[in-house]
Amino acid sequence: MYFYATMAINWRAVLTGFATAFVLGLLVVWLVPLTQLTTLVYAIPGLMGGVVAGYMVVGAGRGAIHGGLATIVGSVVLLIVWAIFGVLFAGLVPAIVGFSFGLFILLLAAIPGALAGAVGGWVKDRRTTTREPARAEVR
User: Fold this and answer.
1) What is the DSSP secondary structure assignment for residue 56, as one 8-state letter?
2) Stretches in the chain below the pLDDT threshold 50
């Protein structure tokens, strides 16, 4: 537990994961027609953002933390924007109810992002790399 408390967060990985999820989310919203299975397709950008954030760090544990953070940062930004538009266009009470529901969904959305980040970190940790230069002779 001490390792996770003192671990430095790679904010570049978190913001890259958020940007990936945001761009893919815009593409999905614009290109995928609204059907009953659309909600499953809407989960793909968040998962890919978690994988990207996890792949930028090494290890499943660090990948899970960074993937979850990328999902949470993206969700908080969108939740704040939706709350502001809700207050402006729907009123204060509907915006508060929507914000409260959004906080609950935020907690649930962090789980798949963390799992995807763990997969990304695990994949990067498992890839084969050579420690010696290409022409070094091993004895």
Assistant:
1) T
2) none
